Amino acid sequence: MPKLIDGRAIAERVYAELRDEIARLKPRGLIPGLAVVLVGDDPASRTYVRAKDKMCRELGLHSVKLELPAATTQEALLARVDELNRDQQIHGILVQSPPPPQIDEAAIVRTLDPRKDVDGFHPLNVAKLALDDETGFVPCTPLGCLRLLRESGIALSGANVIVLGRSMIVGKPMALLLMRKGIDATVTVIHSRTRNISEICHRADVIIAAIGRPHFVSAEFVREGAIVIDVGINRVEDGESERGYKLVGDVDFDAVSGIAGAITPVPGGVGPMTIAMLMSNTIKACRQITSASE
Ligand code: NAP
Hints:
It is built from 10 helices and 11 strands. By secondary structure, it is of the alpha/beta class. It has a 6-stranded parallel beta sheet with strand order 1-11-8-7-5-6. The chain has a 3-stranded parallel beta sheet with strand order 3-2-4, sandwiched between helices. The chain has a two-stranded antiparallel ribbon with strand order 9-10.
């Protein structure tokens, strides 16, 4: 049986470090604050927002949950973001994706104060990632994947890493992060126009799957001993479950786990790390904003 990479256990280690950091900020009168803005009532988004708010409270962070009606206009949302940009108790702002269709998400992201953009989506933070500037914010999911690999003792320098997916949320920042000087992986990015995907994946030391296709990565993609990180979260019908569906990854876990050297489960792999990295980015934002004004 290969090594299971336990995202929940690794996230707990991150929280232990963050608690120490929060305790060090407290005597200086500093409480990191995160505002999460939800427009509309998408059930999955609501669940994510609730989880983020709950984790903030557990850590003793200042948490603001702004729930706006689905009909909120672009102007009204921009005005709320602007208020949060100026709110000194708030160090991180996140507008939950996807917003309703009348909202221009890219325009909202550009309005965020980049110093508070803890999701790492603002063009300035994307540029900082490409420039290896560590003062920028890296999107939470790729940051969480990197931490999972490091905590599991997986050597990345010179390793052949295949990233499946090129979204701005996962695939692209993941590739930029892995090729950073000091991390030094050799990265190949696969997307929907890539040919011979299973052959390319079969050469990988590490596969990171983020395409949103249930069980896409099958046994034939994976070389004996390769490391497999499954970012996918996909709902598939499940007559045996009370809610009628279950969550599965982009990797066929049952088929691949016998071959991989280590693998993340879904759920319990990358998911818990995404929230942990959001908390970490919020504390970093607090540190950076307050030290700049001291
Ligand atoms: P996305 O924006 O839909 O991007 C999917 C990427 O996969 C695109 O680059 C697309 O290629 C590529 N792709 C799609 N089908 C493909 C195929 N058959 N072969 C090769 N490439 C293919 O998705 P995302 O937001 O990155 O999310 C990916 C998955 O990760 C989803 O299951 C999502 O729920 C999950 N996710 C999980 C977390 C977490 O915390 N665990 C966080 C974020 C996302 P093109 O660019 O050519 O279209």
